[in-house]
Amino acid sequence: MSDADQFEPGDPVKRYPRVEPPVQHQPEPGLQSRMTPVPDLGEESYRGLGRLTGRRALITGGDSGIGGAVAIAFAREGADVAIAYLPEEESDAAHVLEQVRAAGRTGVGLPCDITDPGACRRLVADAVEALGGLDVLVNNAGKQLAVDDLEDLDDEQFEATFRTNVFANFWITKAAVRHLPPGSAIVNTASLEAYQPAPDRLGYAASKAAINNLSKGLAQQLAGRGIRVNVVAPGPTWTALQVSGGVSDEQMAAFDDENTYKRAGQPAEIAPAYVFLASAEASFVSGETLNVNGGMVTP
Q: Is the C or the N end of the chain the one with fewer CB within 10 Å?
């Protein structure tokens, strides 16, 4: 973990060391606490400035990785936070909620299988009840599995990827929008894969392109209601997706070499993009995709 706060200047290439992960495997969904090395969520480095004071946020996939880092950053910026995660991820979620509460904010854990539309609707209702309302939604939970050959990509896996990454985004947003007052923000998570699809991640890459497109259309539809919709598209970031079938062994061993910086990103580096897009500082920003990817050029 880095102990330098996010405002400290310096060479961005050397801000974090190379991950250089040993090849490792976990069953889906994977636990961050069992990874080597453990990803940095900004526990020791993120310092808030009150940019989200009084906000109430629901973050899916908030138990670890980028979602966990966003939950910690939001809390330190003054927001109350509800995180959605799978029951198997309870131990990771407990760590994030501990950080949220240590910041003096309300932290609510909501175990949920977001591949079920009814569960998505209940998730939103539970978050609204627990937080007393909702004005920030972060659709971040994702499914990524690498399959080399199209013939080996079975129908069930392809559908599960879209149900997790795209359908749940739609179901949760549809349920949440009636609760979002003017000034609210929706931030969705796409990926560099939306622009540069890896050949072994057809389902994941296509789903992330769909999220990007859905968000840009929704930004136009919701503008008249005073709700902004934006996207963060991370590049290669060290999270539990990688150790639970998201990349091949060869890709994991060379994970640091994928981007221009020649090191993997850490979730702590991605979270400030969500803070900006959720905050009033981004009042004139909607329909935007903010690429956070270590210098990898995108359209």
A: C
Report in angstroms the alpha-carbon separations of 130 from 9, 56, 121, 149, 263.
38, 10, 14, 45, 39
Active site residue 46: no
**Annotated catalytic residue within 16, 46, 204, 274:** 204
Alpha-helical regions (H) of 132-242: 155-162, 168-176, 202-222, 240-241
pLDDT tens by residue, the chain, 299 residues = 555 667 788 899 999 999 999 999 999 999 999 999 999 999 999 999 999 999 999 999 999 999 999 999 999 999 999 999 999 999 999 999 999 999 999 999 999 999 999 999 999 999 999 999 999 999 999 999 999 999 999 999 999 999 999 999 999 999 999 999 999 999 999 999 999 999 999 999 999 999 999 999 999 999 999 999 999 999 999 999 999 999 999 999 999 999 999 999 999 999 999 999 999 999 999 999 999 999 998 87
